[in-house]
Amino acid sequence: MSRVACIGAGLVGCGWAAVFARAGREVRLYDIDPDAIEARALPMIRAVLEDLEAQGMGGPTADEAFARISGSDTVAAAVEAADYVQESAREDLEVKQALFAEIAAHASAGCILASSTSALPGSSFLTAIPAPERALVAHPVNPPSHIPLVELCGTGKTSEATIAAAHRFLSDAGMEPVTLHKEIDGFLLNRLQFTLVAEAMHLVAEGYCSAEDIDKVMTSGLALRWSTLGPFMTVHLNAAGGFNGFVEQLGPMMKHLGRSARTDYDWTPEQADRIRQWLDAACPVAEISQAQQTRNRNILATRRLQGGDDRD
């Protein structure tokens, strides 16, 4: 599969374009805003490619990868010769239903159709198209150009062959796919992420600690283990008897804390605003773009450590 169409040229769509171009694929990029490609998307993608090259991530040069990307004026032109389509339009059910009807009408019968949706089940917009067995969700983490995880989830009509082919294709492109065996709201990452953030909102709103301390608990505590191990392996290594020892010794405490956690905590706008005030002081909205660049470089440094590269 050498030709890819990226439909939607926002942050996620541009990140995907960088991924596929670095993997040697020809990329056609489309956005509903006719001025977005030249004015915003292509400069953004070039900057991402240059940053990846500067950070020593290997692969082609920024110029080589960028030369593989071009814009298309219509969905039909973008997907006409594509082997794989990655849609990253806004999270609106009617928009995605209409968009995939158009994509499916113009893509070849053997083309894999994937959506980056993070909030909508694929079965709500991918099953009424022609040949729905070729369509699935491929939910990335923003920015996909820097974070390799992608969650694959079928719709109930997606064929096993499509899921396997998407897994191989994305793996070959440098991503790290995981597969959900059935649909669930939020997929995997967001269910874990939002559960943690919801309990963090509860702890701050009820006065147990500050928002700053919550972030420090993560960056100076949990994240130092989870960045290389994950929660299951972390507890396996934390008990003398491994995971069984953890369950025997700390299982009752884990269940107690789970029952007392308030992941459904009904926080108020005023409580959320107090957290916003700290965030605005620590990182003003006008400086978010610069902070995102720092975040992305820290992500790449972490990935190098995960791969055993301990250079400065």
From TrEMBL:
BP-aspect Gene Ontology terms: fatty acid metabolic process
Start and end residues of each 3-hydroxyacyl-CoA dehydrogenase C-terminal domain: 186-242
E.C. numbers: 1.1.1.108
A Pfam cross-reference name: 3HCDH
Keyword annotations from UniProtKB, A to Z: Oxidoreductase
Taxonomy, superkingdom: Bacteria
One GO MF term: carnitine 3-dehydrogenase activity
InterPro entries given in the database record: 3-OHacyl-CoA_DH_NAD-bd (IPR006176), 3HC_DH_C (IPR006108), 6-PGluconate_DH-like_C_sf (IPR008927), 6PGD_dom2 (IPR013328), NAD(P)-bd_dom_sf (IPR036291)
Residue ranges annotated for the 3-hydroxyacyl-CoA dehydrogenase NAD binding domain, each copy included: 4-182
Keyword Oxidoreductase attributed: yes
Family: Belongs to the 3-hydroxyacyl-CoA dehydrogenase family.
Name of this protein: L-carnitine dehydrogenase
Gene source species: Roseisalinus antarcticus
Organism lineage: Bacteria, Pseudomonadati, Pseudomonadota, Alphaproteobacteria, Rhodobacterales
Gene: lcdH
